[in-house]
User: What shape does this take?
Amino acid sequence: MSGLSDATTIDLAAEDAQGEIMVVMVEDRPWTADPVQEAQLREKINLYADFICGGGLVDKFPEAAGKPVRIELSCVQEPIGAVSTLAQYVAGQLHELVLDLL
Assistant: This one.
């Protein structure tokens, strides 16, 4: 998997047992106060939002049409500091966007 360091790749998209589409971004490094890591998360979030809201998800996976979508951040440890704040804020914003699309 590419992880956060590659902001051009969707790490994983799959349907779970309940029929919800999961679009997962992966961070396999520990969180630090490094602003580069935070910037990489921002870039990856933008990629995922565009992929979902711009129709890329349904183009690539037509079976996702009309199904609920969940974006996950899979990481080796809980986000800390500014990254934690960013993740919480974005989770709320993306939730609203995805609900508007359904």
The chain is about 45% helix and 20% strand. The mean pLDDT is 87. The first strand starts at residue 12 and ends at 15.
